[in-house]
């Protein structure tokens, strides 16, 4: 009896080719698509077509047409409520707390590999595996007795950073057919199979036009320097992130960057480029893939953002389940809310969410003059 595989189809070229390849390999393929657009944005007015927006309706129809051309069953599941709660609301709350969240990591963890599969099972669909069009590889290591998550062959498209939260149980039932191909090869395979999406452009953003369309207006506040001097006014802390230089609206005669965000005092702190560099962070919500748990210090390569070059670091366990990451060389713009992922060569060791840095920007009001002082702390 052939294995049954559910393929998460987004309406793009990658997931379409993944479905085609699996069918050719002899699997009984079932296409599923999640409806996440409910007609309006969660925190404001949405104006574009990205991963979230009215354009998702067209994507669903594209996925349906591909499924028809492949002659496979196709189902659409409404996950708009779950998406609002787990991704959009989370996204807005994190920004309001002064952090910079990664919606792709959150969506993979809570929606694609969780809520979507729950809805699929609840509908009565039985399956052995779940497959996506992500560019990464997975295999079982006989020595470690663990499933491993590995980088894709095409490093320019590698998406292992976004899936560090996968558990052993999820990896055991997940297939990633595109891990050994380049994007150019995938588009050619789509064209050779006459898939109508072979030239379809990719969604390049969470929301085309910028994430600010999802955020409510928030109180304005002060932009200050490290010494507490007020340099200008910000338009709301959710619209700023660590390392930001443009759009500050202040003239200082030299470049200034956001080096700290203080939601309690509704303050944005700016400084010089050198203030952005940090050699240490603490991560929480850590998931381990290549090992059961971190028991002692370990040398790794760490990525603090998807497009940030990996850097040599030593990770060490903390008593509360968090992990301290010490870089060999200071890294620019380590940002709370973003994911930090650890690698050993091509293997994903694990990853978590950045909570704080060694230069945590903490501001205190002291004395009758309410003097604002920047304190550098080591968590």
**C-alpha Rg (nearest Å):** 22 Å
Relative strand content: 25-35%
How far the N terminus sits from the C terminus, by CA atoms, comes to 55 Å
One letter per element, helices H and strands E, the order comes to EHEHEHHEEEHEHEEEEEEEEEEEE
**What's the multimeric state?**
single chain
**Whole-number mean pLDDT:** 88
Count, helices: 6
Short descriptors:
379 residues, 30% strand, 6 helices, 5-stranded parallel β-sheet, disordered C terminus, single chain, 6-stranded antiparallel beta barrel, 19 strands, alpha/beta
Model description:
Helices cover 21% and strands 30% of the residues. With 379 residues, it is of the alpha/beta class. It is globular and about 70 Å long.
Structure summary:
With 379 residues, this protein is α/β, with parallel strands linked by helices. It contains six helices and 19 strands. The strands form five sheets. It has a six-stranded antiparallel β-barrel. A five-stranded parallel β-sheet has the order 3-2-1-4-7, sandwiched between helices. The chain has a four-stranded mixed β-sheet with strand order 9-8-11-10, with no helix packed on it.
